[in-house]
Specification:
It is a single chain. Strands 1-3-2 form a 3-stranded antiparallel β-sheet. The protein has a two-stranded antiparallel ribbon with strand order 4-5. By secondary structure, it is of the alpha+beta class. It is built from 4 helices and 5 strands; from the N terminus they run βαββαββαα. Helices cover about 30% and strands about 45% of the residues. The chain has a single domain (about 5-145), classed as Hypothetical upf0131 protein ytfp (Roll), CATH 3.10.490.10.
């Protein structure tokens, strides 16, 4: 039996920036852009600093674009600690016409505060770096108030 020593991680917030994620977990390797159906992107998770962070909310007929990464299993616990206030959820994302099982983070800790400009800059870096759809980038900019 073959056991993978890596897991697939779907990033949709600041961790879409390879620079940001690699600084957090050195084993992160980009797989590429991916889409998660049945969810909507929000910037409403209460961060430890009191500001808003990206979040997933169930919503039929919507999709969240993000980036699929491969992370060493032993570093996933480290990422879990960094992503305090989120819980890890199993998701199925579309990547290059194929469905892939991955994990993502979601939270019930909701806020009406705004994200910091630094946080938003990581999101924008990831959107540009991975060339996510232009209309999606515009939608996220509106949602995040930028």
């Amino acid at each position: 039996m073959f056991f993978s020593s890596r897991e697939l991680y779907f990033a949709y917030g600041s961790n879409m920036s390879s620079r940001r994620l690699s600084a957090r977990v050195s084993s992160a390797k980009v797989i590429g852009p991916a889409r998660l159906d049945g969810y909507i992107w929000c910037c409403n998770k209460l961060g430890q600093d009191g500001t808003a962070k990206a979040n997933l909310m169930l919503q039929d007929d919507f999709a969240v674009h993000g980036v699929l990464f491969s992370v060493k299993t032993k570093q996933c616990r480290q990422l879990d600690r960094i992503e305090a206030g989120y819980r890890r959820i199993g998701v199925e994302v579309e990547h290059q016409g194929m469905v892939k099982k991955a994990f993502a983070y979601q939270s019930d800790l909701i806020t009406r505060h705004a994200p910091t400009l630094e946080y938003v800059s990581f999101i924008i870096d990831g959107l540009i770096e991975h060339q996510l759809p232009t209309e999606y980038v515009a939608e996220l900019r509106r949602e995040a108030g930028i």
